[in-house]
Amino acid sequence: MMGVVWIVMNNIAEMTTYLPMKGITLPYFTGRYVDPSLAFAAGWNYWYAYSVLVAAEASAGNLLFAYWETPVHPAVWITIILVVILLLNIIAVGIFGEAEFWFASIKLITIMGLIILGVILMLGGGPNHQRLGFWYWEEPGAFKEYLATGSSGRFLAYWTAFVRAGFSFITSPELIGLAAGETVAPRRNLPKAARRFLTRLALFYGVSSLIIGCIVPSDDPRLLSKDSNANASPWVIGIQRAGIGGLNHAINAAILTSAWSAGNAFLYSGSRVLYSMAANGQAPAIFAKTNRRGVPWPAVLVTWLFGCLAYLNVSQGGAQVFLWLMNLSTISGYIAWIIVMITYLRFRKALVVQGLLDTLPFRTPGQPYATWVVLVIVSLLTITNGFQTFAPWNYKDFLAAYITIPAFLLLYLGHKAVKRTPWARSAENIDVITGKKEMDDLCAADEAPVPKNWIQRVWFWIA
Predict the structure, then answer these.
(1) CA 36 to each of CA 25, 28, 411, 412, 421: distance values in angstroms, whole numbers, following the listed order
(2) Residue 174 predicted with pLDDT over 60
(3) Lower Cβ count inside 10 Å, N or C end of the chain?
(4) Which pLDDT tens digit goes with each residue over 116-148?
(5) What pTM value is reported for the model?
(6) Taking a C-beta distance cutoff of 8 angstroms, is the pair 375, 338 a contact?
(7) Cα 280 to chain centroid, rounded
């Protein structure tokens, strides 16, 4: 999955460094390089994804609160989470950036500490002095069979994990596109961020996943599944199994702040997508209305209302509701990535046909072949996202896994029927010129900072 995300990130980085204009969005590139109808559907798909992710994070927060087994009703925790998120986005928007800074700092310190702790536990440094190593890879095994036995069961387990891993990365690569117009020296800093993205993914996600697989057995009943009452992260389970007292509560609290932070950011992003569409005439005009602080409060409110889907926890198990919301947002994210890759392929084709490929400020390896390969992979992930709902048949899980696809097609085909837009622009007629000279002139004045000592050299390399 890290390779898939890296290619999507590269696609976005190439397009945004070519035209790092202020206020651009990825649907803008889709409308310019492919088709206005696809851009319209893409914009609503992004808003839908962010809105469902608000509910998913509120649901995850409720699961984490349940770890402490308080007598408080789940609806109370969900209400607290949603109200705080709403206040930060409307009333306390001035401290939004400050809150996100501290949330991000807590996440970074926590994950680095957990990686170090995980290595110590693997080497037998825990209170029980049990040298774990890769013991759980042998018993109960690294691959847990799923829906079948033998190699088929292991493959289905791997594919399910592959599909669901996308949830952790949904809408993440897109952030580089949203930041392009606001970034200092975009043609220098965006490529730098894209190149380092894979390293950070490998460290924070790859290494973390590897360590979790070593300190928690795959058959632990406390792990998340639709039939479980899971209320703790694998990290907390691993700490408990090692016999470390007290730390499990601190880690659970830190992970709770992460869910809160993510919900906060998703509400902000979703409301801004809706505001942008309203400003461009692709959504009702009321969503372009702002208060005196410049906050698009109608867009914030309607996006926040989708977060109330988290109240499904009241009538269903928390783990089941989280899996539904995860499916809804994951499939929407995969559709968004498919659109990004189609947009990139048309953009690159236009540059080749018009003889402008050499003017591309940032070029990534393996293109366009890498994009074609990943496009096939993500398409397969989208189609097979809910394969497990067929055995046995479960209409609720099926709807959660696939309802986004017809909804997206309805938006796309409906807009095309009303506006009568062409299916796609020919490569010769794609506009890759407008704005290019202005961006070239603007970025030409940028000069890379020169480090004056070894400390600055290290900092410039890291930053």
Answers:
(1) 13, 9, 12, 9, 7
(2) yes
(3) C
(4) 988 888 888 878 777 877 878 877 777 777 778
(5) 0.83
(6) yes
(7) 25
